[in-house]
Amino acid sequence: MTIRSATTRLRALLMTLAVLLVVDSAPANALSLMDPFNLPTAMDGGTAKVGDGIPFADGQRFKLDVYAPEARGGGPAPVVFFIYGGGWNRGERSDYQFVGRALAARGFVTVIADYRHVPEVRYPAFLEDNARALKWVEDNIAAYGGDPNRLFLAGHSAGAYNAVMLALDPSFMRDYGVTLNIRGVAALSGPYDFYPFEYNEVREAFGQAPNPEGTQPINLVTADAPPMYLATGTTDPIVRMQNTEHLAVKLHQSGVWVTARYFEGFGHMEPVIAMGSAWRWRLPVLDDMVAFFTQFGAFPSGVPYVAVVPEAPEGMERGMDGVVAELDRMFGPLDQ
Hints:
- It contains eleven helices and eight strands.
- By secondary structure, the chain is of the alpha/beta class.
- The protein has a single domain, classed as Rossmann fold (3-Layer(aba) Sandwich), CATH 3.40.50.1820.
- The chain has an eight-stranded mixed β-sheet, with helices on both faces.
- Helix 7 links the parallel strand 6 and strand 7.
- Helix 1 runs antiparallel to helix 11 and helix 4 packs across helix 5.
- The N terminus is likely disordered.
């Protein structure tokens, strides 16, 4: 498929979804794969972007956004640092507003940071960039209502890899002076066991690593790893579910708490899209994630917020399924 035809088909799908969502104020000149999920009526209310484009280091890509509940209870809130995917060569924090607002609606202060992509950088620079952002979180998140002592990592696809690697290899955090304790990691549709590198996208990101086996989360698991929630679709065409199966087994064998969820018949994008209110009726990913974080200390006094799971609007499934299929077609496989 050519870029022109893919863009034309996607634009048609976005227009269809705008009608289905009864939204006529979406920007006409902005086109993103994730636009349907970031329309105002497709996101959770009662939340606010309390930090927009905050620099965490010198450089165009070193900026982050912070989301929080509008009505805050007494005391600071737990923090989720969410890392988006995109094969390590694309992605923007603005595409995942729906994730930031979904977690904020459940009582978390949520941070989403940009990081440099291939080919500007290769492994391990994208991990180092996220470690830099976590140093900002450690030093500043209290001013935005967050508790740095209740930090959780989350991510999707390549972002799930990044989150898991930061949790398993403490050298990245140590090199940037981060002393935060990671309470738990929620990783969606992630590649964790993909060496030898078969696909060009992965070879571009990791092919120059002096120790390629050391780039694999499956090889870095120890008994000191934090608890993990791993979720994947069973028909994921981008990252095979064996990645989740293998990591879950290794964590269990090492005595690390792991909760693994396999969503029958779902693909690569659905687990992250299901965090947003427009798709939440399809998969319980947000409920799973909040329950997991709560189990490991997010809300010592009890969960203060309960998300409303909407029913599917008439015609929405048809439109959303088209967008998800288009997303999967425009991404290449990441695992072997």
